[in-house]
Design a protein that fits this description.
Strand order of the largest sheet: 1-2
Distance between the termini: 70 Å
Largest sheet: 2 strands, antiparallel
């Protein structure tokens, strides 16, 4: 007579295998995930990253189309000047929209408040930057350092001036000729300045991979945060 079949998973040997093999592997994997999470901190929410990416796209369109309008070599290469003008006008007009839409996010509003406030440590950061002292301990910073705050304030003001002067150039009936001439002068030279500042901004971003990773994924390493932004308490 054949002995009754048994479920291999219920035998003492199988139970021992589970206790000594599979379970520890799962525990180790779970512990590793917790450790990896502990080594990274959240820096930006999806809404904040969306605002940055959309603004960067519109700004890129403005710069690219401006180059096609003012540089003969690019103008000949691209052609279709009327289309380039329309893309330039609408991308410039839409530039403030991502920021206005981002105001619906509590995290974005909180970051705007941080960007808009300078403290004593920001003065220390700026003095160190002027002295070209790059030591992290000489540049105290919260979530945003003084350089980022200065750039954010400058680019926000520049965008508003560009939109205002652009509207005067677009809708010629809004102002007399002397106003439109002045608006064209300011618009052109400020556009050149913005291009140079953006080039510096992109160059600094390329030199800081962890900063780029924070904007791409929303999180940064805890070690980087403690070194570059010691006053930030995420």
């Amino acid at each position: 007579m054949r002995p009754p079949e048994t479920d291999a998973s219920k035998t003492p040997e199988a139970a021992s295998d589970v206790a000594s093999g599979a379970a520890p592997e799962a525990a180790v994997s779970e512990a590793g995930e917790r450790l990896a999470g502990a080594l990274r901190v959240r820096r930006f929410t999806p809404a904040e990253r969306w605002v940055h990416r959309t603004t960067a796209l519109l700004m890129g369109l403005c710069v690219l189309t401006a180059g096609c309008l003012y540089l003969p070599q690019l103008a000949e290469l691209v052609g279709r000047r009327a289309l380039v003008v329309r893309v330039h006008e609408w991308s410039g007009l839409l530039l403030p929209v991502p920021v206005l839409a981002g105001l619906a996010s509590r995290a974005f509003r909180a970051d705007l408040r941080l960007l808009n406030r300078f403290g004593p440590h920001d003065k220390v950061w700026l003095r160190s930057a002027l002295r070209r002292d790059a030591r992290p301990e000489s540049r105290p910073a919260g979530k945003f350092n003084a350089g980022q705050k200065t750039y954010a304030a400058w680019i926000a003001g520049a965008v508003l001036v560009m939109v205002g002067t652009g509207l005067l150039m677009w809708f010629t009936h809004l102002a007399p000729l002397v106003w439109r001439t002045s608006a064209t002068f300011v618009h052109d030279w400020l556009a050149l300045t913005i291009g140079l500042v953006l080039a510096g901004h992109i160059g600094m971003a390329l030199a800081r991979p962890e900063s780029r990773r924070g904007l791409r994924t929303g999180s940064v390493s805890r070690e980087w945060a403690e070194r570059e932004h010691p006053l930030w308490r995420p």
